[in-house]
Specification:
- The complex is a heterodimer of chains A (about 150) and B (about 80).
- Chain A has about 150 residues and is α+β, with helices and mostly antiparallel strands.
- Helices cover about 30% and strands about 30% of the residues of chain A.
- In chain A, the strands form 2 sheets. A 4-stranded mixed beta sheet of chain A has the order 1-4-6-2. In chain A, strands 5-3-7-8 form a 4-stranded antiparallel beta sheet, with no helix packed on it.
- In chain A, helix 2 packs antiparallel against helix 3 and helix 3 packs across helix 4.
- Chain B is of the alpha+beta class.
- Helices cover about 25% and strands about 25% of the residues of chain B.
- Chain B is built from 3 helices and 5 strands, in the order E-H-E-H-H-E-E-E.
- Chain B has a 5-stranded mixed beta sheet.
- In chain B, strand 3 and strand 4 form a beta hairpin.
- The longest helix of chain B has 9 residues.
- Chain B is globular, with a radius of gyration of 12 Å.
- The relative contact order of chain B is 0.28.
- The mean pLDDT of chain B is about 95.
- The chains are: A alpha+beta (about 150), B alpha+beta (about 80).
- The interface between A and B is medium-sized, with 29 and 16 residues.
Chain lengths: ~150, ~80
């Protein structure tokens, strides 16, 4: 498992490539989040950020087969089109890899202590949490949604 | 009893501080007790901390509810609902 909270950009190919170490891995699902339209500054809570991501990944590994996982989240100044976040999950089959990857992203959005401040022409503003993100995370609590 | 208190993002800006050490009276030894103590400072403290929609709390880097007890040396963080990802 690799968890990194960093200012620097990341290379999707290199990160996914470094997961492919075992011949029992049959699927890697990855998600990359990008800055859309507006430059922003991302602040986080050093220490709690890493431990909360670790807890989320462990929760995913308790629900699905997670053979390896990489989560990278950037902070600092970011421009439109910049990469913000990478989640890559390796499993034997695609179902577990897709589900765990989506679960980790949904939980990360509502539980990891990051805050976005947008730099708009009319001034800066802190982004407000969205109810849709809470709902996306909550649906995983419905046992019917849990992968068997 | 001393606790380390941290503020992040919008709260850090509104309060004009990112960290301070606060000596809590025994009667205030919960998250809600600390919050009430800070609200008595008035101004932004009163306005922001009074609105539960604007504030989340972590004790020793774990999310905590208002009734969570505090102990000497704890790290208590106040911050807005998170917006990463």
């Amino acid at each position: 498992m690799k968890i990194s909270v960093q200012r620097e950009d990341f290379d999707l190919g290199a990160e996914v490539g470094s997961i492919c170490g075992r011949n029992t891995i049959g699927a890697i699902a990855s998600f990359v989040g990008l800055v859309r339209e507006v430059a922003m500054t991302l602040e986080h809570y050093p220490g709690m950020t890493e431990s909360s991501i670790r807890t989320i990944v462990e929760e995913a590994a308790a629900r699905w087969q997670v053979m390896d996982c990489t989560v990278i989240h950037r902070y600092g100044e970011l421009q439109p089109n910049d990469r913000i976040v990478l989640v890559a999950v390796a499993s034997a089959h695609r179902g577990d890899a897709f589900a765990a990857c989506q679960f980790i992203m949904d939980y990360l959005k509502t539980r990891a202590p990051f805050w976005k401040k947008e730099h708009r022409p009319e001034g800066t503003r802190w982004v407000e949490a969205k109810a849709a993100d809470d709902q996306a995370a909550e649906r995983w609590q419905d046992p019917a949604r849990k992968a068997g | 009893m001393k606790v380390k208190v941290l503020f992040f993002a919008r709260l850090r800006e509104e309060f004009g501080t990112s960290a301070e050490v606060i000596d809590l009276p025994g009667s205030a030894s919960t998250v809600n007790g600390l919050r009430a103590l800070l609200m008595r400072r008035g101004g932004a403290w009163q306005r922001v901390l009074a609105d539960p929609k604007l504030v989340r709390v972590a004790v020793n880097q774990d999310m905590a509810a208002g009734g969570a007890p505090l102990n000497a040396g704890d790290e208590v963080a106040f911050f807005p609902p998170v917006t990463g990802g």
